[in-house]
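Predicting holo structure, 6-O-phosphono-alpha-D-glucopyranose bound.
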Amino acid sequence: MCGIIGYIGNKQARDVVLKGLKRMEYRGYDSAGIALLNGGLHVTKCKGKVKALESLIDSKDEGFVGIGHTRWATHGEPNDVNSHPHTSNSGKIALVHNGIIENFNSLKQKLESEGYSFYSDTDTEVAVKLFESVLDKNPELSLEKAVQLALGQINGAYGFAIVHADFPDRIIVSRKGSPLLIGVGDGEMLIASDASAVAEYTDKVVYLDEGELAVIQKDSYQVLDSNDVELTKEVHELAVSLEEIEKGGFPHFMLKEIFEQPKTISDSLRGRLNPDLGTITLGGLSNVMDKLVNTKRIIIAACGTSWHSALFGEYLFEWLAKISVEVEYASEFRYRDPLINEGDVVFVISQSGETADTLAALRKAKEKGASVYGIVNVVGSSIARETDAGVYLHAGPEIGVASTKAFTGQVTVLTLIAVSLAIHKGVIEKAESDRIINALARIPSQVQSILDRSEQIKNIADLFTYAPNFLYLGRSFSFPVALEGALKLKEISYIHAEGYPAAEMKHGPIALIDDMMPVVVIAATKHTNDKMVSNIEEVKARKGRIISITSEKNQEVKELSEFNFTIPDTEDVLSPLLSVIPLQLLSYYVAVNRGANVDQPRNLAKSVTVE
Ligand code: G6P
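Done. Tokens:
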């Protein structure tokens, strides 16, 4: 989620680009860089924040065309050389990139054999050398044609902005999987990965769609599709109220974020999951994959909803990757004297990347010699910066206090890591990994099909709005979902709710069951179905009210339940990504019915920065 900005017009590009980079710094700030055109190409870049870059730039760095970048490293550690922009061997082309080039190794080998030299550890550098090689071979081509031709050879996700000293009247941009927009000004144009970076200069923006390329000039822009056909693009007006834009017409951020999940899960998968090849690429972990493959034990530390994801991670890593896992509440871990053995790996999971206990657990683990990797949503957050490596969720800003899209993002990323590890370790049959990878690719549309039936959940919520207690039961992969469902309800509706392993119910909570008690049963894993059926019978025998969440194929559970919501069929390990959605909706509708402040529940905070 790097930040990209570009400017062409009558102002000093340096000033516009630096300002834009500061606005987008939340997207990543382990390094920053700028390229200016002024009779030639002038690149300044360094490790660190935009402030550090600013101190390297002086008033002599002039020019009316420039591009800039803020980076959170994926391929290659954050250092001066790996910072963007990257330049061609001729020193004439510079580009900034957001995304991951999956086939960078093979491209690099080919380009090296053609005589091009590489200096960084990034995937990005192959792109600039590739553009250069196409131009070297076809000097008659315009910059945009050369870029278009080269893009056909690049697999993966990208948002590119490119400048060339011999074409000083233009910036070329192209996107596939990474956002880019054009800010349309009067006698000036901007490009950016984020509207916040252009809002100061114009309220007119053109959003580029997948596979599009644009030629940006001071007074015009031309957008082409991948077949080189010119497109007429809609010019959008940036509305004044930022909050309004962010809610996108939904009454609450939480509902918007629930409904965003088909997209946010796709975003977590994009550039990483390749169903055609049956492979998974995690750029943020590529340098530490050997360490992960050889580790005997993984510890996962987190808080709140992120802890529920961590628990799911335990089940998943053991099941698929055959690695022993311990899950820790970060707040407990930090005050214990945990035993860390050589080779142990610690994962910390955090939406905000700022939770004080999780940050402290991270530091404690590091102090004790562990390698610590992050699964984080907010780019450039403390946890993202302090971990040795990691994977971002790409779920976008989560504003509702009750976490929804971050949970499914975390579960998605954990699944990618577990399957990838299993493949690297050789402990999974190809047929099984292919099956899971293909099923994972179908999850976003399956989530959409659940959301399309949200009315059914609302009807159930209407019936139980004033229940004083709820019990949530699940086994295996559905147990963390039961905990998460109960937490969602507690957080925003203030109804007491407990999540329990279904069989453990007999050791206490069963005493609470009577004809007033709604019992939400998550019967979503096939391998525990018979046992869940027995648990449902036990609840029914005590007149508990069964609300079940189960696969559309599970006739038996449907018939046993007073209320039922079906989810599409999928692999057991992926079922939490589907079964949690109706539980998020249930808590939302109950809370709304009760008149609660859904987005800002009492006593809670989004980012807990105190212990
Ligand atoms: C707070 C939030 C929860 C979140 C937890 C951990 O309690 O309200 O939604 O799960 O913190 O936050 P993190 O940002 O570390 O995931």
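The pocket of 6-O-phosphono-alpha-D-glucopyranose is lined by residues 303-306, 350-352, 355, 358, 401, 403, 604, 606-608 (CB under 6 Å).
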